[in-house]
Amino acid sequence: MEHHFKDETTSVLKAAWLIALVTIASKFMGFVRDMVVANFYGATLVSDAYFYALQIPSLAIIILGGVGGPFHSAVVAVFSKLIPNFNAKPNEAVNKLYNTFLTVSFLFFALCAIIAFFFADKIMGIIISAGSPELIALASAHFKIMSPIILIGGIIGIYYGLLICHKQYILPNLSPMVLSLVVIVIISLVHNDKSGIVLAAATTLGAVCQLILQFPKIRQIGYRIRPNFDIVNNVQFKNICELLFPAILSSTIGQISIYIDMFFASTLKEGAWTSVVFANRIFQFPVGILVTAFLVPLFPIFSRLAGEGNMDSIKTYFNKGVGVLFFAGLPMIILILLLAKDGISLVFERGAFDANAVVMVSEALCFLSFSILPYVFRDSITRVYYAFNDSKTPFIIAMSSIALKAVLNWFLILKLNMGIAGITLSTTFVTLFNAVFLGLFIYRRIRLDYKTLFINLAKMLVAGLITYILCKFVCAGFDKLTLPKYIFEMVKIAVVMLFCLATYTVLNLLFKMDYAKELAARIKR
Q: Taking the C-alpha atoms of 393, 396, 398 and 404 in order, what is their torsion angle to the nearest 10 degrees?
């Protein structure tokens, strides 16, 4: 048993490193896409319209259909228990279940896409009701062009889940790069897109290419498309639905919080929503890589162990996974707080993206950075709920957080006049709320070893605080130097980052943290 655990842990770590490398490549391409979009459109009415219109298509292709989304999670939770050997071809029963799920999903999302196209004006009018008529009209035009993405999202999620079940980790994490690449090429070729229509069309084309890329591998594994409606008395399809529908509702409820943010952002100055979107994109670059790398290979293991009733192993894997995420997340918070403005200026400040946009985005990002620790805990423990086929509890907790989000936005933005920072700070509080209650209610399923986990976190927090103070002195010294702008920013970022990581690791070694020991051992090797 001990030997098997070590082997599987090694396998998870290898998969995590592989996924991290692939996700870094994909996220980097997404980052380049954001740089190009910022260069051509800045933080303006056109970019606001695009990002308002993109929110529902993003719900489909990233939140619902992306890696870790409800469709991916439901497929992994059910199919991983039906596929005894990931190298084997899927049998007739598995293929039939795949086709049933695919057929129902296609029809559902096709209907949603049609509704989105024909009622685009009304939908955008509701979401950004506080915006100007010009903004609403432009966002509606963008939304009509991007409505087909809604159809694509769920299908991509099904394919992602099947690929992960067969331990094909690279393609699901690499394929989003295609969407970014298409957007970069098209808007770079068209220099005079004053309305953002070309940007919206490029986004839709990129999503189509992302779907097409998955299909050959799915066929190679052995899945064939034969539409059917075998939904009556189908136990496995029922299991998928019982897991999927609350998870979709939970994700959709989470989006309602974003729509609340969109409403409040539309009451602020031009470019406010673009600033919040860019802050989220920058936030997701390191945090998304970290979470994806560890949770994608761990989730099928959670599901299998839950099916076997092996609670001790779930506790061990959970603590190891979340512990590593905490350990890596703290220096991210420190570096964002210290270097956000310099980093955003270096990467984005050119073309239509001016110094004012840099200030808006960095302000939003700094307040959002405090959500990193509750974010990684929330996403990790949600996978444990899904492993037990429980998506209802995360849904109820997400539902209860909507009122909190609205009240916090009202208080922070309208009463305290925090502006853009109020939007991301309220997001941090809501993420913490979700993490705390998910952590409490999991006791109905399994009693996790929180004592060990949070004692280790306390040691990391002490190491992090000392590191932050020392790095603050280093930054103060740098700010006295007189160098050309871009050289100053590059040197400052590089030196402070290296100093931060070295100091943080050494302090954790002094505190005898296992994560720091493992990191030091890997660097030595």
A: -140
pLDDT of residue 1: 45
DSSP state of 90: P
Compute CA distances 313 → 34, 310, 316, 449, 487, whole Å: 41, 6, 5, 11, 49
Alpha carbons 58 and 66: distance in angstroms, whole number: 9
Give per-residue pLDDT as tens, 70-119.
777 777 777 777 776 666 778 888 888 888 888 888 998 899 999 999 99
DSSP string across 194-262: SSSHHHHHHHHHHHHHHHHHHHHHHHHHT---------TT-HHHHHHHHHHHHHHHHHHHHHHHHHHHH
Let me know how long the chain is: 525
Question: Are the C-beta atoms of residues 152 and 208 closer than 8 Å to each other?
Answer: yes
Indicate the number of domains in the chain: 1
- Please give the average per-residue pLDDT across 503-523, as a whole number: 78
* Cα 75 to Cα 79: distance, rounded to the nearest angstrom: 6
Could you tell me the two tokens for 247?
Answer: 């998870």
Judge whether 320 and 16 are in contact, CB under 8 Å. no
Choose between 21 and 505: higher pLDDT: 505
Give the whole-angstrom CA distance, residue 346 versus residue 422: 25
Structure-token pair, residue 244: 């999927």
The tokens for 119 are 């009622």
Q: Is residue 489 assigned to a domain?
A: no
| Structure-model confidence comparison of residues 197 and 165, the more confident one | 197
Where does the pLDDT of residue 495 fall: very low under 50, low under 70, confident under 90, or very high at 90 and above?
Answer: very high
Given this model, what pLDDT does residue 214 score?
86
Q: What is the sign, positive or negative, of the torsion defined by CA atoms of 341, 48, 44, 210?
A: positive
Judge whether 488 lies within some domain.
no
Q: Could you report the per-residue pLDDT of 377-410, keeping only the tens digit for each? A: 998 898 888 888 887 888 888 888 888 999 999 9
| Whole-angstrom distance, CA of residue 409 vs CA of residue 86 | 47
pTM of the model: 0.72
221-224, long-range: CB within 8 Å, 24+ apart, which pairs?
A: 221/89, 221/90, 221/162, 221/163, 221/166, 221/168, 222/89, 222/90, 222/95, 223/90, 223/95, 223/98, 223/162, 224/95, 224/99
Instruction: Kindly state whether residue 519 falls inside one of the protein's structural domains.
Output: no
Range of the domain at 64: 2-448
Q: What's the mean pLDDT in 443-464?
A: 90
Residue pair 497/508 in contact (Cβ under 8 Å)? The answer is: no
pLDDT at position 3 is 46
Asked whether residue 455 is domain-assigned, the answer is: no
Nearest in space to 201 (alpha carbons), one of 40, 31, 53? 53
| Dihedral sign computed on CA atoms, order 516, 517, 518, 520 | positive
Measured CA angle at 463 (ends 458, 467), to 5 deg:
145
Q: Angle CA(256)–CA(261)–CA(262) in degrees, nearest 5?
A: 90
For the chain, what percentages of helix, strand and coil (3-state, to nearest 5) are there?
A: 80, 0, 20
Distances (CA, A) of 216 to 27, 221, 224: 23, 9, 11
